[in-house]
Amino acid sequence: MRFRYLGNSGLKISEITYGNWITHGDQIGNDTAIACVHAALDAGITSFDTADVYANTLAESVLGEALSGQRRESLEIFTKVYWPTGPKGPNDCGLSRKHIMESIDGSLRRLRTDYVDLYQAHRYDIETPLEETMLAFADIVRQGKALYIGVSEWTADQIRAGKALADELHVPLVSSQPQYNMLWRVIEDQVVPTCRELGISQIVWSPIAQGLLTGKYLPGSEVPAGSRAASPAGSALGRRLVDDQVTLERVQRLKPLADELGLTMAQFAVAWVLQNDNVAAALVGASRPEQIASNAAAAGVTIPTEVLTEVDEILADSVERDPARTAEKTLTSRPS
């Protein structure tokens, strides 16, 4: 495993970070989830990402159980706050001081730890003054309940405003967690340059595009049974596959490039996001323990420049680059 600094902080995290969105408490049983976490530890992964909203808090509980007994100082545990949890009352979501201060205590209890290494705003909350949000995060840091703070799916302007307040409050805002992969590059034009300037790293989710970049979805074929696209949670992906046969064909043309490097398609996709020097880690999940060791092999891989150019030529206009797509992640009102 390789490690990278998170932003301009002194914190190092594993290039491959284990994330439990969709899987823990939902898609797979607890015994399998715990086995996946232990496989991640065996692969040298030390960083683990979750959120209170995943499986309506159950994912945090499963991760806490799985990491129980491990040396806490040897782990980096991340979680997030914003989306509705619990009975989903009027203050059970958003980034108000009330919700943040109550949510961190719930997350720490479920994760069985006194602190998280990184506490992230899971979305931008337009209904709460940014000053209120950042002061709550600053107080959590000063209370020792979080060591660093971050954001997820914020625009470049939102990140800049948040960083300015964090600096005034003398708390380390060091990370951004966006979607990023070969097909979805909307952060490259604005978010990444802004974060480089401000000393913020990316921890990217969906590096294999929800399985699309593994090559298992074949043009003109049915969606494989048991795949993400065949599940209720992946219904949107399934519809896209039906409608976008051109992209499926182009993805198949990436396989010879992966083969030349001795990588599986999934490893190639994960290694691709790590070529961006503003990316500190790629988030990977698993429904089976053996998937972890395979994905972990993408750490430390260098993809030659000429191969990166071939990827761009093959995928062509299948790549989404519009930076305005990030702004779409900001809800016009809090979810309920």
UniProtKB/TrEMBL annotation:
This is Aryl-alcohol dehydrogenase-like predicted oxidoreductase. Keywords: NADP, Oxidoreductase. Residues 15-315 form the NADP-dependent oxidoreductase domain. Gene3D superfamilies: NADP-dependent oxidoreductase domain. SUPFAM superfamilies: NAD(P)-linked oxidoreductase. Signal peptide: none annotated. It comes from the Bacteria. Belongs to the shaker potassium channel beta subunit family.
